[in-house]
Design goal:
By secondary structure, this protein is an all-alpha fold. Helix content is 65%, strand content 0%. Helix 5 (48-58) runs antiparallel to helix 6 and helix 20 packs antiparallel against helix 21.
Length: 444
């Protein structure tokens, strides 16, 4: 990100110069979206021109916070803070600028900073003019920032700073390091606890295995992140250290390891949710079955029959009324076939749809369950005609299936168990005035 921003500094030189001249306008009034995004990348990478340009248009000279939206206030606080903190003089900035001049000599970047000048270093006239111009702009920026803070209430200011912290913490190690540096800037307004937390989070992020072998060790003790974090934490009293520890964990909540743990937890919760849905959406029963006491049809079994009919699972011993790995895998395969993300969890509507799809393929068990749903109004609006059509088709399909020779043993045994239920329910539901071809599995 930083090297990209350095390259953008040259490309945007003319544009940012224009932005700093003449009447001040809001960023939206000055730049197309593409240009403003380029300026933001350059500003985050350290380009002083881009930082000043965005700070100026984020809160123009004649702006009034009372007339700005919350989003505009948030943006103004964010960029005036970043620009002012980057422009402030400090030993840390002097060390950074000195290293950047060395990088320029090695032809790795295309612009330079001028803090921390050593004896004997010389500037050309363009550089001297820029230094004078930068001092003037920094003074104006400080006044702009004070005026903004005076117009913004404490709640809006806290929200803006929180949003800035959130944005940077989600950028990984580089963003956390940027946040740590900002937390040590007076204009950012961080508490000592937050400052210690930000440096501790940056230190831990850079210690992760993800960066091993990619970055070299610092060549100066002054840039030992762990040392800085430890010193800032030690300076806090005991209770404040606990606050800093909690804040550090909040800043690190997007670390890959933590996300991996959360993903596993979400997967287990989805499985539990699937079981809850199955247990809460019980299929209705006919009056014939009510008398049997334990003849209540199981929804998981109904789903398993439907998945088998639709070709998403093959049973050896038949459905077992257990929403286990085999059934979850079948559900996931069905979701993928429909272009959906595989979650292995189904809503009540998806459960009904799955049983209906199997019923439309003349699975007698699925047709039987659809008939029960129409008769009781569970899953569908109550409709005796559709219930009669579904049970009639279920009876016909069961007779045809049991009369063939191709049924595997488990299915023949299961169908023989369902056949008496279907015959008894057909006597109760069937009506002579209803055509068995009446459409089912559609709502009126």
């Amino acid at each position: 990100m930083v090297r990209l921003a350095f390259g953008l500094a040259v490309a945007l030189g003319t544009m940012t110069g224009a932005a700093l001249a003449g009447e001040e306008k809001s960023c939206a009034a000055q730049y197309a979206l593409e240009d403003q995004l380029l300026l933001e990348w350059a500003a985050l990478g350290g380009d002083p021109h881009a930082q000043m340009a965005i700070a100026q248009c984020a809160f123009p000279a004649k702006a009034d916070a009372d007339e700005m939206s919350p989003a505009e206030i948030d943006y103004a606080v964010r960029w005036t803070t970043i620009a002012l903190c980057e422009a402030s003089e400090s030993p840390a900035h002097d060390r950074r600028d000195e290293r950047m001049r060395k990088l320029k000599e090695d032809a790795n970047i295309s612009f330079r900073r001028f803090g921390g000048m050593k004896k004997g270093e010389k500037l050309n006239w363009r550089e001297r003019d820029f230094m004078e111009y930068r001092k003037e702009q920094t003074s104006l920026l400080a006044g702009r920032h004070r005026r903004l803070l005076a117009q913004v209430d404490d709640m809006a200011l806290a929200t803006a700073r929180s949003n800035l912290s959130e944005q940077l913490s989600r950028m990984g190690p580089a963003g956390l390091l940027k946040l740590a540096e900002l937390s040590s800037c007076e204009a950012f307004g961080a508490s000592p606890e937050f400052e210690a937390a930000a440096w501790s989070a940056a230190s831990e992020a850079w210690r992760s295995a993800d960066v091993d072998g990619v970055y070299a060790a610092p060549d100066s003790d002054e840039y030992d992140l762990a040392k800085i974090a430890t010193e800032k934490t030690k300076a806090l009293p005991g209770p404040d250290r606990r606050v800093a520890a909690l804040e550090k964990q909040r800043l690190l909540r997007t670390s890959p390891k933590r996300l991996e743990t959360l993903e596993k937890k979400v997967a287990s919760l989805e499985d539990a949710a699937a079981l809850r849905r199955l247990s809460s959406f019980a299929l209705p029963v006919s009056s014939v079955e009510d008398s049997g006491g334990d003849e209540r049809p199981a929804l998981i079994t109904a789903l398993q029959f439907a998945l088998e009919t639709l070709g998403y699972v093959s049973f050896v011993n038949g459905p077992d009324n257990d929403y286990g790995p085999t059934t979850r895998s079948a559900v996931a395969r069905m979701q993928v076939s429909k272009g959906e993300d595989p979650t292995a969890a189904l809503t009540n509507e998806e459960l009904r749809e799955t049983i209906c799809r199997a019923a439309l393929k003349d699975d007698p068990v699925s047709l039987y369950h659809v008939a029960l749903m129409y008769k009781s109004g569970a899953g569908f609006p109550q409709n005796d005609a559709k219930a009669a059509a579904a049970i009639s088709r279920s009876e016909t399909a069961m007779i045809a299936a049991l009369g063939g020779d191709s049924l595997p043993d488990w299915k023949r045994a299961a169908y023989n168990g369902y056949a008496p239920k279907i015959r008894a329910t057909a006597k109760e539901f069937k009506r002579p005035d209803v055509d068995a071809e009446t459409s089912i599995c559609v709502t009126p």
